[in-house]
Amino acid sequence: MECTTTVGVDRNLRNATVGNEDHHEVHDLSEVVEIKQRYRKKKSRFHRNDRRIQKKIALKYGKRERNRTMQIIHETSKAIVKDAVKNKEMIVLENIKGLINITKKGDRRGTNYRFLLKNAFPYGMLASQITYKADWEGLPVLELTREETMNTSKECSACGSLTRIEHDRMLKCDSCGREIDRDVNACINIAGRGRTWLKRSVKGLPIEVVKQSKDVEQKAGSQISTNN
């Protein structure tokens, strides 16, 4: 499929935000975390001193947990790919390898936080499902490196300056005055860096994408001039 632009996917603990400069959509994935926590609590209540029975119970609950989790991930990835195909947008994924290493025992964040980060949300599963469904539709998927996805949440998607948290998950840029949700800001930056990567690649980028990328940059520049 020949794409005309890119769309970024920002994966978080309780949601996945997909979008670019023109549109965005937040997919609620908090139910995945709730399922993981619920089955973790059920397993902790079983104290029978029989390894055979313990293994049987763990497999039983583990299967139920995976089935329910997979169904949610399947529906979410299906919706993401469907919208990308409709809009002829290449999907750009961030590299989140090493994310679980940001917390460790003794950092005062608690065992529950470490469990949620390392086990509660299947980041890799969502990426695999998106890639598989996109390949089936002939839609290209690009995964950026860790260096290319640095500061996607902090860097202003309009002017490129570092932002600060105004309240809750809202960011404010002191340079251009833009206020934007942190996750939306991240997916816009991921989509933009995907276009930058493609323009620097050997194959280059279709003329339509280059033109649209320049239009977006000019639009962002005009917004900064207006704010100033």
User: Could you tell me the strand content as a percent range?
Assistant: 15-25%
Number of strands: 8
- Across the major sheet, the strand order is 3-2-1-4-5
Low-pLDDT residue intervals, each spanning 5 or more residues: 204-214, 223-228
**Number of DSSP helices?**
6
Q: How many structurally independent domains?
A: 1
Largest sheet: 5 strands, mixed
Percent of residues in helices comes to: 40-55%
End-to-end separation? 41 Å
User: Structural class, judged by helices and strands?
Assistant: alpha/beta
Mean pLDDT: 80
Rg, nearest Å: 20 Å
Tell me the overall shape: globular
Element-level helix/strand string? EEEHHEHHEEEEHH
Can you describe what's shown?
The chain has one domain (5-227). The relative contact order is 0.18. The longest helix has 37 residues, at 51-87. It has a 5-stranded mixed beta sheet. A 3-stranded antiparallel beta sheet has the order 6-7-8. The chain has helices at 30-44, 51-87, 111-120, 123-137, 182-200, 207-227, and strands at residues 5-11, 15-19, 24-28, 89-93, 141-143, 164-167, 170-172, 179-181. It is built from 6 helices and 8 strands; from the N terminus they run βββααβααββββαα. The protein is an alpha/beta fold and 228 residues long. A hairpin with a 2-residue loop joins strand 6 and strand 7 (170-172).
Summary?
The protein is of the alpha/beta class and 228 residues long. Helix content is 51%, strand content 15%.
